[in-house]
Design goal:
- By secondary structure, the chain is α/β, with parallel strands linked by helices.
- The protein folds into 2 domains: 202 residues, Rossmann fold, CATH 3.40.50; 38 residues, no CATH class.
- It has a 4-stranded parallel beta sheet with strand order 2-1-3-4.
- Helix 5 crosses helix 10.
Length: 272
């Protein structure tokens, strides 16, 4: 992988790379590629969000971390006033603004925003820490809906691909800690052999890494975090103030590990 990834501790550099390099390069074709295509991971979350908004009776919605506003393009609900979408879609300029989900200033009321807060705030595909949750809570009206989606780290137990390999190495086993504990070269070599044998069980070439071009990094080269859903709920309950956690739903677009479904087709697709 090209050495263009900002240091993990440099949050400002990471966010800048995501906003200015990665998503700006995708904006022209992201919707067609991921929302209109027949790819391996269809955007099943759009229908879920549509159902949540209908059930909540939401008339105004803010999509935080919307990127090219693909979800809002799909949520063409009658009577739904959408903010933070692209100017090219015909919204007035004052309805369009940029800002990071970690920046409280980005959530301050803008012209055209409901003064009491939005009926609903959605934050999908971005992930959430304590600061993000606080920002989302500040943007929604009392009694409103906050819907958060994060890439489920535990799905890697099911996929048998490079994400599974990373989960085993980094979380379940803790390879770095074991390497430090190795007493000598013999123990280190034995550990390497064991890890190599483990890796044989995973298709570490899948899914293909989403790289960029010579000037701009791709998604997997800047920021692609997953979350343990149980820990995410704990963060929400501990840091979200007046949030009332309603429910958590585990979603996968396939009913069978994707690396094993070649030639099987539609019977292996569906929501879990």
């Amino acid at each position: 992988m090209p050495d263009r990834k900002p240091p993990a501790t440099d949050r400002e550099a990471v966010e800048g790379a995501v906003r200015d390099d990665c998503y700006s390069a995708w904006s022209a074709h992201y919707y067609d590629d991921y929302y209109q295509g027949a790819g391996a991971y269809p955007p099943v979350h759009t229908d879920i969000v549509r159902g949540l908004l209908r059930a909540a009776g939401a008339r105004t919605v803010l999509d935080a971390g919307c990127r090219p506003a693909s979800m809002l393009r799909d949520l063409a609900e009658p009577g739904l006033e959408r903010c933070r979408v692209l100017a090219e879609q015909g919204l007035p300029a004052e309805r369009v603004w940029e800002g990071g989900v970690l920046d409280p200033a980005a959530f301050r009321a803008r012209a055209g925003a409901p003064p009491e807060g939005f009926d609903a705030v959605v934050c999908f595909g971005v992930g959430a820490d304590a600061q993000v949750l606080a920002n989302l809570r500040a943007a929604v009206r009392p009694g409103g809906l906050v819907a958060i989606e994060a890439r489920n780290q535990l799905v890697a137990l099911f996929t048998f691909n490079r994400y599974s390999r990373d989960l085993f190495h980094d979380v379940l086993i803790g390879v770095s800690a074991l390497e430090k504990k190795a007493a000598d070269a013999g123990e280190r070599a034995a550990l390497e052999r064991a890890l190599a044998a483990l890796d044989q069980h995973f298709r570490i070439d899948l899914p293909p890494e989403r790289t960029g071009d010579a000037s701009r990094p791709g998604y997997d080269e800047v920021l692609s975090r997953t979350h343990n859903p149980f820990l995410l709920r704990q963060v929400a309950e501990e840091n979200a103030g007046s949030f009332s956690w309603a429910e958590a739903e585990m979603i996968t677009a396939r009913a069978f590990p994707p690396v094993l479904t070649s030639g099987v087709g539609s019977p292996c697709r569906g929501l879990l």
